[in-house]
Design brief:
The chain has 70 residues and is of the alpha+beta class. The chain has 2 helices and 5 strands, in the order αβββββα. The protein has one domain. It is globular, with a radius of gyration of 11 Å. The protein starts with a helix and ends with a helix.
Length: 70
């Protein structure tokens, strides 16, 4: 399921990369936006302004990204 979210995020133009610890993260298209998502086990953790907010299942992560794509 990780691959499904990452693949769709890349298609929509989001930045997908691993951090220094090897954790996948998805960053917004616009550098002024203050959110990011990190893969923690089998869920995507939404972080806004460095504050963890919610754990998304893969289908919820895709829905979140769809609302924010340009």
């Amino acid at each position: 399921m990780k691959d499904t979210v990452l693949k769709q995020a890349k298609v929509w133009g989001f930045i997908c990369q691993k951090d220094t610890q090897g954790t996948w993260q998805i960053l917004p298209q616009q550098p002024t936006e203050r959110w990011q998502m990190r893969l923690i086990e089998d869920r995507w953790l939404l972080i806004v302004g460095n504050v963890p907010q919610i754990n998304f299942y893969p289908h919820e992560a895709i829905a979140f990204l769809e609302l924010r794509r340009s």
